[in-house]
Design a protein that fits this description.
By secondary structure, the chain is α/β, with parallel strands linked by helices. The two termini are 21 Å apart. It has eleven helices and 17 strands. Helix 4 packs parallel to helix 5 (116-129).
């Protein structure tokens, strides 16, 4: 693992162009590439990925000559200030730690890692290197989520005390037999894959309360029989189906709030993808539903007294997704005095909740979470 010191333009305020790289050539990686190529003050200079054809095509598209098959070589060659990590989950921790040790700021795709232990190693590496570590929770940057957050912050529903948050698919297992369905590579199924987005936006909307306990169940009824797979399976690694295809959680929150979270890759339900959240507050409520990745979902705020309702449909713009995530990451990189605050701890908290959920499902019992201690 490289331990070279990076000497790129990450000091903020110098006016120097930040040199960026992306590891991972899939959809997520390409979102990061497009953001780096679009935003001012940053230059996309290198990419890495195993697929020869896409690597060459993306290099040509963005005018990049530093093209790597092996991420180690990208890191060791230096001249990189920031890197996005958009690869299978089992590679997040080794790549992020290697890049941080080389003095490179890291933006990782979600989930931060397979386990809280791996996530803690990443946070510790960020502190040891005095570098930024962030995780791309792009769904909280949707326009409808931001509009709902603004309504809550304005007091329109009072204090939220309970929610049901979902991301459900009828037939959306990413690729049967791929790394997604291999427990060692992925860390789990829909809970750690799409459920982590639900967990993130739910806690974000509640104002980031600490999760004190988790009670969970998981089910593997369809994937184990070859059902529920998404079209276009091109990543078969010969793995048996080793993860859940549905998970349901009850989260107890500090201060008395609660969240029921449900997520599935495959279930006999209406066709397509649906995600969103229903919130109950002391002065009102809210419901957001997004079907089949609509740019803006249906958002309703419920208020009034008894039958005298004052319900309002809220129009929201699509938001800026990964572009906003990358922009914020670069702003934090420029904020040199506060790098220690941008250390991945929030994503580590999400990982601890997911670990507790899987443990709860294994034990068939509630798991209590102790308060976390910040990385050294």
């Amino acid at each position: 693992m490289s331990t070279a010191t990076n000497t790129g333009a990450t000091t903020g305020g110098t006016g120097a162009t930040i040199k960026a790289a992306v590891i991972g050539l899939g959809w997520a990686g390409q979102q990061h590439m497009e953001a780096y190529a679009t935003l001012p003050g940053v230059e996309l200079v290198a990419i890495a990925g195993m697929e020869d054809g896409p690597r060459a095509e993306l290099g040509e598209k963005y005018g990049i000559t530093r093209l790597y098959r092996d991420w180690h070589e990208l890191v060791e060659d230096g001249g990189i200030d920031v890197v996005s990590v958009a690869v299978p989950t089992f590679l997040h921790a080794p790549i992020a730690v290697g890049a941080l040790e080389a003095g490179i700021h890291v933006l990782s795709e979600k989930p931060i890692a397979r386990t809280a232990d791996e996530a803690q190693a990443m946070v510790d590496a960020a502190h040891a290197a005095n570098r930024v570590l962030e995780v791309a929770f792009n769904h909280r940057r949707r326009g409808d989520i931001e509009a709902l957050k603004a309504a809550i912050d304005a007091g329109q529903i009072g204090r939220p005390y309970h929610a049901r948050a979902i991301w459900l698919r009828r037939a959306g297992i990413p690729a049967l037999g791929s790394w997604f369905t291999n427990r060692e590579m992925a860390g789990g199924g829909p809970l750690i894959d799409i459920g982590v987005h639900v967990l993130d936006y739910a806690l974000h909307l509640f104002g980031e309360p600490r999760v004190t306990a988790v009670s969970a169940v998981t089910h593997s009824e369809l994937g184990t029989r070859g059902r529920g797979g998404a079209a276009g399976n091109k990543q078969d690694v010969g793995s048996a189906y080793e993860v859940e295809d549905l998970a349901s959680l009850l989260l107890r929150l500090e201060g008395g709030g609660s969240i029921v979270l449900e997520t599935s890759w495959a279930a006999y339900r209406p066709a397509g993808d649906e995600f969103g959240i229903t919130l109950y507050g002391t002065e009102g409520g809210a419901d957001l539903r997004v079907v089949d990745y609509a740019p803006a979902g249906e958002l309703t705020i419920f208020t009034g007294e008894g039958e005298a309702t004052s319900d309002v449909s809220v129009a929201a713009d699509p938001g800026r997704g990964h572009l906003a995530v990358v922009e914020t990451f670069l702003e934090h990189v420029a904020d040199t005095a506060n790098w220690a605050e941008y250390d991945g701890s929030r994503a580590l908290d999400r990982a601890r909740v997911i670990d507790a959920a899987y443990e709860s499902a294994r034990r068939n019992a509630e798991v209590v979470l102790e308060p976390a201690t910040k990385g050294a």
